[in-house]
Design goal:
Blueprint lengths: L16 H12 L3 H8 L3 H8 L7 H11 L3 H26 L2 H42 L1
């Protein structure tokens, strides 16, 4: 999954600043719950950032600077880097999915699925024909 940004760096995985925050709190021996209270945030919202499900906004970056002494612009820059790298990785993955080999594999998979469905349908038709023939014979006997 190679992608390149304008610096020539190839990110493999985007690094969310929430992971950095989690390590920082752990190193300082601060619980998420206590830290959330310290910066005036709901613990669930802080946890979403740490679990990399929510971004660090400018307002949150300011609170982090006040509480941890880490400059707000660094948190904002990390968030922007994460968003850029996520975009580049997604774009690269999308391009990779449309290669001729992948396209052919998708077509072959579709054909195999269609063939299997037709075979099942054919089996069902044979069962219906056999049932119909049995019903016809029973009608003639009566």
């Amino acid at each position: 999954m190679e992608t390149k940004n304008n610096n020539g760096f190839t990110p493999f995985k985007a690094a969310h600043p929430g992971g950095i925050l989690a390590m920082e709190l752990e190193e300082r021996g601060i619980s998420q719950k206590d830290f959330a209270k310290q910066i005036g945030m709901f613990p669930s919202n802080l946890n979403r950032i740490i679990k990399e499900k929510a971004p660090i906004t400018e307002a949150i970056a300011e609170k982090l600077e006040q509480a941890l002494g880490t400059k707000a612009y660094l948190w904002i820059a990390m968030q922007k880097d994460y968003e850029r790298d996520s975009y580049l990785i997604a774009r690269s993955t999308k391009k990779k999915e449309t290669t001729p080999q992948n396209s052919m594999n998708i077509q072959l998979s579709y054909i195999e699925n269609l063939t299997n469905a037709l075979n099942r349908l054919s089996d069902q038709i044979e069962v219906l024909i056999a049932q119909n023939q049995n019903n016809s014979k029973q009608t003639l006997v009566h």
